[in-house]
Amino acid sequence: MRKLLHTVTLIGMAVMMTACQGKSMPDTYVPGMDFQFFTGGIAQYTEDGAYIRVGDFVYFYDRSTKEMIPLCDKPDCLHDKETDPDRKRKCNANLYMIDDRNYQPFIQYYEGNLYIMYKSLFADGGQRKSDRNTQFVLYKHSGNGSYKEEIWRSEEVVSSFLVHRGSVYYTTGGYKSEEDGIKCNIFLKAFSLDNPKREKELYHLGSNVATSSIDKLTGYGNHLYFSTSISNVLEDGSYEHENHFFEMSLRDYSINELSVPGLSSKTLVNGITFMDDKLIIIPYTVETNSTDEFYIPTDIYEADLDGDNIRSVLKGIPQGYYIKGDGQNLYIDNAICAYMGDPERDPELKYYVYDSDYHMTDTYTISNSLIKNWAWDFPVGCPEWGCYTLNNSAEGVRSAYCWDKKNIGSYDGKELDIELIDYDYPEPYVVQELFTD
Ligand SMILES: [Zn+2]
């Protein structure tokens, strides 16, 4: 009886928690909910490992056994070793709905499941559709590999999405011909995972502009963050650009523009990250439109999560340096400058680690051959470790790597220890394999 009561209490609590999501969750870091900012779309971390996409399959990498396991528990399935296209597509670990090789499906882990947005030419079940019928389809993959199911579908282009505290936020829209010319309208919309059919428009950008976009969707605590960029054509044919960064309260959907003290018209908020439940704001001044501007020194700021009480915490950082956080440390790298900037100032790739008091605690380098196109977007991972993949179909490269953070603090400029995750990946995807028309 006692056991039963315990179960009833747990179910009651689970119901309460679901009902309260988004409204009464604490405005602080909650593991499993607020980690999205330090993960890329390729790997999503859990307590025991990470879900990693390599090529057209999603795997769970078990950190203790160092095993890479296709995310499918069907006993009669060979997963990534299936040769029959239809059987391969039905594997729960397979991401075969994608048939646009340039489209990288973004994966998000949330409360035990993976959410993956596909760009699909299939209506459903494998019939090829023309490009005009491209659809964006959100799938839920069970975190234990037991099923995958479609939960939402859109005829509109989905440019980015984020699962945060029980809801899906996404940007959509684009160009449309209207009576007085071509208009670009971009929308930020949301729906609850409990009720995907009830979409809600949160923000609209556009109408009479040449191009516009909403980017950098980020969720943390009861806040959503996004940047906007607009280009207008002036009478003399030149372009005028406008960039903004906003914070939206998820309690009442009120919007605040993020800014830094003494902001000139040429300085914009270029990026954000987080540290100890504080917002880190990264400015950038557009000055010369040449690589010289990478070396304009900038302050880095810390603020409350709504952008208030802003203060400078780091000074004199070249603004071409890239800054990311895992919630415990900040990682600043010179990758863009090392590739495109002044070779005398930045002769090699260098990463600088700062602790939560903004003291530099370590520096390290990474071998070029291990990062390739990740150079300026090397994932910082979660607080304990990080992983990343290299996918290059043209070169037949398919590999995943991980790195442990336990040695951070003792590198002192030496090369980061990176470990290759040993796995025999299938041959790269061949489009013809799928279609008969
Ligand atoms: Zn399978």
Search tags:
disordered N terminus, globular, four-stranded antiparallel beta sheet, 4 helices, 437 residues, mainly beta, binds zinc ion
Describe the structure.
This protein starts with a helix and ends in a 16-residue tail after the last strand. The chain has a domain at 321-429. It has 4 helices and 27 strands. Helices cover 8% and strands 44% of the residues. It has a 4-stranded antiparallel beta sheet, with no helix packed on it. A 4-stranded antiparallel beta sheet has the order 5-6-7-8, with no helix packed on it. The structure holds zinc ion. Zinc ion binds next to loops.
User: Sheet with the most strands?
Assistant: 4 strands, antiparallel
Strands in their spatial order, largest beta sheet? 1-2-3-4
Envelope shape: globular
The first-to-last residue Cα distance is 62 Å
Number of distinct beta strands: 27
Structural class: mainly beta
Helix content: under 10%
Low-confidence stretches at least 5 residues in length (pLDDT < 50)? 1-22, 431-437
Q: Would you tell me the overall average pLDDT?
A: 83
Radius of gyration: 23 Å
What is the count of helical runs? 4
Strand content: 35-45%
| Bound ligands, each once | zinc ion
